[in-house]
Amino acid sequence: MQPIFLCAINNILSGTCLEDCKFCTQSVRYHADIERYNYKPIDQIVEEAKQAKAHGALGYCLVTAGKGLDDKKVDFVARAAKAIKAEIDGLNLIACNGTASKEQLLYLKQHGLDSYNHNLETSKRYYPNICQTHEWEERYETCLNVKSVGLALCSGGIFGMGEREEDRNDLLQAIASLEPESTPLNFYHPNPALPIKTRNIEQDEAIEIIQKARHLLGNEKLLMVAGGRELLFHGEEAKMFEAGANAIVIGNYLTTPGEAPQRDREVLEALGYEVATSCDRH
C-alpha cells in the first residue's frame, strides 16, 4: 500500500474576514462563536510547526482570514515562512491567503514558500449561491498565478453546501484542468451561525467524489480528505483510502476541531498504512 501523507494547518490570522462566503465562520458577518485574533507571534508559529513535524506532518499551511493578500499580509507570511525554513528541515511549506497576484506569490516563493493553496470551493455555476462579494473567476485566476511563478498548486473545494451532482462534477473537472499537485476535499461542517444550515452529503457520496477525483487527477497527485473527515469517516477511515485518498489533515482545522494526531497515526498503523516521510513521491 502506498504511504499516506500528513498535512497540518495553522490559522495565523483568525475571524477577521469581510467577505460573505456562506460556508465560513471566519466571516465577521455571521458572528459565529469562534476565536478571533490578529497575527500570531512568529515564534509561536514556528513552535507549532515543530509540533506538526513531530506528529509526522510533511505539509504545513499558513492560513489567514480575508479575501486576499495585501502588503501587510505578504510581509508577515514571508517572515513567518523564512523563520520556519530556518529552523525546520523537510517541511513542505504552504500558504493559504486568498486571492494573490503573481508579484505577491513570487515574493512568498523567494522567502521559502513551496506551495500555495487556493480552493475553487464549488462550481462556477453554483458559486453565486455561496458568495456574492467576489467571483469564482478570481479564484481560478489566482490558481493560474500560482502555477505561473513556479509554486506547487494546492486546490480543491467543499462538498455538501446544497449543490447538485452536476456542480460537484463540474468542480472536479475545473480542478483537474488546473493540474494541481494536491487537492483537498472538504465536506461541509454546519454551524448554527451560518446561512447554510445543513450538510447535503453522506458517506457514499463522499466516497464517489474521492473516486472521481482520483480518476480525473491521476495516480501521481496528492488527494487529501480534509475538513469534515471526522463527520463522515470517523471509525471508517479505510473507506476513503480505498477510494483513492492518499493524504489527510491532522490536528485541528481553522475553527473546528479535528482528530487527535496520535489517534490518526494509530488508525493508519492498524490499517497497515505507512506514514510518508518524504515529499518526493517518484
UniProtKB/TrEMBL annotation:
One of its GO terms (molecular function) is 2 iron, 2 sulfur cluster binding. Residues 1-229 form the Radical SAM core domain. Binds 1 [2Fe-2S] cluster. The cluster is coordinated with 3 cysteines and 1 arginine. Binds 1 [4Fe-4S] cluster. The cluster is coordinated with 3 cysteines and an exchangeable S-adenosyl-L-methionine. [4Fe-4S] cluster binds at C17, C21, C24. Pathway: Cofactor biosynthesis; biotin biosynthesis; biotin from 7,8-diaminononanoate: step 2/2. SMART domains: BATS, Elp3. Its EC number is 2.8.1.6. [2Fe-2S] cluster binds at C61, C154. Keywords: 2Fe-2S, 4Fe-4S, Biotin biosynthesis, Iron, Iron-sulfur, Metal-binding, S-adenosyl-L-methionine, Transferase. Belongs to the radical SAM superfamily. Biotin synthase family. Homodimer. Catalyzes the conversion of dethiobiotin (DTB) to biotin by the insertion of a sulfur atom into dethiobiotin via a radical-based mechanism. This is Biotin synthase. It comes from Sulfurovum indicum.
